[in-house]
Amino acid sequence: MKQSQLFTKTRREAPKDEVSKNAQLLIRAGFIHKEMAGVYDFLPLGLRTLNKIVNIIREEMNAIGGEEMYMSALQDKAKWEATDRWDDEKLDIWFKTKLKNGTEVGLGFTHEEALTSIMKDHIRSYKDLPKAVYQFQNKFRNEARAKSGILRGREFLMKDLYSFNVDLKSHNEYHEKARSAYMKIYERLGIGSLTYVTFASGGTFSKYSHEFQTLCEAGEDIIYVHEARKIAINKEVLTEEVLKDLGVKRADLQERKAIEVGNIFSLGTKFSDALGLNYGDEKGALKPVVMGCYGIGPSRVMGTIAEVWSDDKGLIWPESVAPFKVHLVALLGSDDKVKKAADDLYDSLTTKGIEVLYDDRDCGAGEKFGDSDLIGIPWRYVISEKTLASDSIEIKERKTGKVEMKKMASFL
Amino acid sequence: MKQSQLFTKTRREAPKDEVSKNAQLLIRAGFIHKEMAGVYDFLPLGLRTLNKIVNIIREEMNAIGGEEMYMSALQDKAKWEATDRWDDEKLDIWFKTKLKNGTEVGLGFTHEEALTSIMKDHIRSYKDLPKAVYQFQNKFRNEARAKSGILRGREFLMKDLYSFNVDLKSHNEYHEKARSAYMKIYERLGIGSLTYVTFASGGTFSKYSHEFQTLCEAGEDIIYVHEARKIAINKEVLTEEVLKDLGVKRADLQERKAIEVGNIFSLGTKFSDALGLNYGDEKGALKPVVMGCYGIGPSRVMGTIAEVWSDDKGLIWPESVAPFKVHLVALLGSDDKVKKAADDLYDSLTTKGIEVLYDDRDCGAGEKFGDSDLIGIPWRYVISEKTLASDSIEIKERKTGKVEMKKMASFL
Question: What is the distance in angstroms between the Cα of B397 and the nearest Cα belonging to chain A?
Answer without folding.
Answer: 27
